[in-house]
Amino acid sequence: GIFYTARQQLFKSIDYGDNWFPYSTGTTGAIRELSISGSDPEKIYAVTGISLYLSTNGGITFFNRAAGLPNRVITGVCIHPDSSNVSLVSLSGFGGGHIFKTTNSGLSWFDVSGNLPDIPANDVLIYYPGHSTPIVLAATDIGVFVSSDFGITWPELAAGLPNTVSIHLDHNRQQNKLRVGTHGRGVWEYDGSILGINK
Fold first, then answer.
1. What is the CA radius of gyration of the chain?
2. What order of strands is seen across the sheet that includes strand 177-182?
3. N or C: which end of the chain has fewer CB within 10 A?
4. Residues ≥6 apart with Cβ < 8 Å to 110
5. Which residues neighbour 64 within 8 Å (Cβ) at sequence distance 6 or greater?
6. What span, in angstroms and rounded, lies between the C-alpha atoms of 126 and 150?
7. Rounded distance between C-alpha atoms, residue 12 and residue 165, angstroms
8. What does the alpha-carbon distance between residue 147 and residue 100 come to, in Å, rounded to a whole number?
9. Please, are residues 44 and 58 in contact by the beta-carbon 8 Å criterion?
10. Cα–Cα distance list, 31 to 9, 24, 141, 181 (Å)
11. Other Cβ atoms within 10 Å of 162 Cβ, number
């Protein structure tokens, strides 16, 4: 029954959303993205514009973990389901990388954009159909790109998707369905096998 939402700080409910209470300190600005670790729920990332914050105590206190990232708006953050130390972020803007990875909970970051076009990335997703894969997806201003080598190469995932801005990525693990939210063209769904992985 635990839920989180955010405005200027993190709010938490322990009764399925009936009651909410302010819960966090250490962030500045409106929180626009949250990511909670599946393997260690005490680790939560919060994004406020160009700032990235990490909590290691379930959202009570946050510390800045943006050092080493370009000074651009962070549009998405995804924690690896198997390892709370490994995360990816997506970045907007032009010039430089758009997907960055950490293996030490944000103490350092390195560019895994590979040959991804120099366009704003709006979301990033580590594809996890119940087990680890090297597959990562990026939603960008010109569509979705998928890397099967954890960020070295990024071919486009065209497969019927309209030529439009892709904003959000989600994965239904039970049905192995990938969903892509677009700007003005609706939500599109793919079977996970299109990525070369079958449950």
1. 16
2. 166-172, 177-182, 187-191
3. N
4. 100, 101, 102
5. 51, 52, 53
6. 9
7. 32
8. 13
9. yes
10. 7, 11, 22, 20
11. 14
CA 96 to chain CA mean position, Å: 19
Q: Note the pLDDT of residue 111.
A: 97
Task: Output the six-digit token pair for 77.
Answer: 């953050």
Which of 128, 127, 52 lies closest to 44, judged by CA?
52
**CA angle (29 as vertex; 140, 54 as ends), nearest 5:** 75
Task: List, for residues 169-196, the tens digit of each pLDDT value.
Answer: 999 888 888 899 999 888 988 887 767 6
- pLDDT given for residue 173 in this prediction: 84
3-state helix/strand/coil string of the chain: CCEEEECCCEEEECCCCCCCEECCECCCCCCCEEEECCCCCCCEEEEECCEEEEECCCCCECEECCCCCCCCCEEEEEECCCCCCCEEEEECCCCCCCEEEECCCCCCCEECCCCCCCCCEEEEEECCCCCCCCCEEEEECCEEEEECCCCCCCCECCCCCCCCCEEEEEEECCCCEEEEEECCCCEEEEEHHHHCCCC
Contacts of 68-72 with C-beta under 8 Å, sequence gap 24+, read 68/100, 68/108, 68/109, 69/100, 69/109, 70/96, 70/97, 70/100, 72/96
Q: How many residues does the chain have?
A: 199
